[in-house]
Amino acid sequence: MENIYIVRCGESALKGKNKPYFERMLVQRIKKNLKDEAGVTVERVDGLIFVRTPEEIPQEDVLKRVGRVFGVDSISPAVEVPIEGLDAESALDAIGREAVAFMMKQIESRGIKTFKVDAKRADKTFAIQSPDIGKRIGARVLKGCKVLKVDVHEPDCFLYINVRRNFAYLYDKKIAGYGGLPLGTNGRGMVLLSGGIDSPVATFMMAHRGMYMDAVHFHSYPYTSERAFEKVKELAGILTDYCGRIRMFSINLLPIQEQIVQNCPEEETTILVRRFMMRIAEAIAKREGDLMLITGESLGQVASQTAASLVVTDAAVSLPVMRPLIAMDKTQIMDIARDIGTFETSIQPYEDCCTVFLPKHPVTQPKLERIEASESRLDVEALVSQAVESAELIIISQREGI
Ligand code: ATP
Ligand code: MG
To answer: What is the domain range of residue 105?
Structure first.
């Protein structure tokens, strides 16, 4: 025996001529998230995706893994009723029989008392129209399941019926996915990944729009600890549930921070460090074919994230810098972090390289000319290329057994 799931792809279905491409990508991603397990099939049929799995794979697992694939709008565990070669009356009879059995199961497992039928005839050649399918199956269920009543306003259970060419499908729920676009349909980007709450959420949000993610992480070892680094790897691990494999470049920023502290005004330390982070990230991004830089910055959150600071930060690089959280409040960001499972790890109290050498009164309205004048005391190019050369690549593979 096998289990069947109907998967709907929302936005990807709207993309005109690109539709087959998006759907193909989506099928690939679903297969990948189900780890190509034996006996699993994933196929597109007329705008829907059908996933079939051996009965041994728990439903919960399938829902979780498929629900995390970007581009999936919703998913329904379904019962399949073969109607190939039957005339409409016999088909309706077969559907009715299965509908009664299906609703009996709902009564036994969760004690439902009321239901509402929602019938759809996707195959327009089927001789009975949707409202009549609904009425007649509803009547059949009322007759077969004596404890049930119809409640069109607040039913305990829906009975969805979808009549297609050779099969009809019955299901009671549509479990929402994350929507978005399948991974790989929007190139590759480089996220500046810290151990905080924000940048993992920013990573999730860009991947949600179809972008593969590389990451760069800066540490100030030995000022930052091994454990702080482990925390970032753990966050990247959680993110692989959504983004697939992540290539993370790890860089010790300490030599640059020391140069800045020795040669530049104290209140400019943070913004100077941030411009170096951007330059290093950009150099690696260009080498690796990443189209954009991504950060977890949000307008006004801290001194280095005022509008003026962001402008000065951006002036250090030529690649576009994407800030998906720019207009979000911290509470909204935290809600997403909880939902995607990064929050608990993010709040573990380990030091970040940005907190090393933190100035007492950081500039909030930096002037580009002043910042550039400070930088002229450093050999920016050499410092950046040394940092890039020293980068250590860590591959964070997609987690098993999610
Ligand atoms: P928090 O949740 O504490 O705000 P954060 O990651 O946003 O965490 P910020 O100091 O606000 O920390 O940094 C702003 C952005 O700069 C981050 O979202 C991240 O993109 C980048 N960043 C900060 N520290 C690092 C780091 N150590 N390595 C890589 N990127 C970093
Ligand atoms: Mg932040």
So the answer is: 2-176
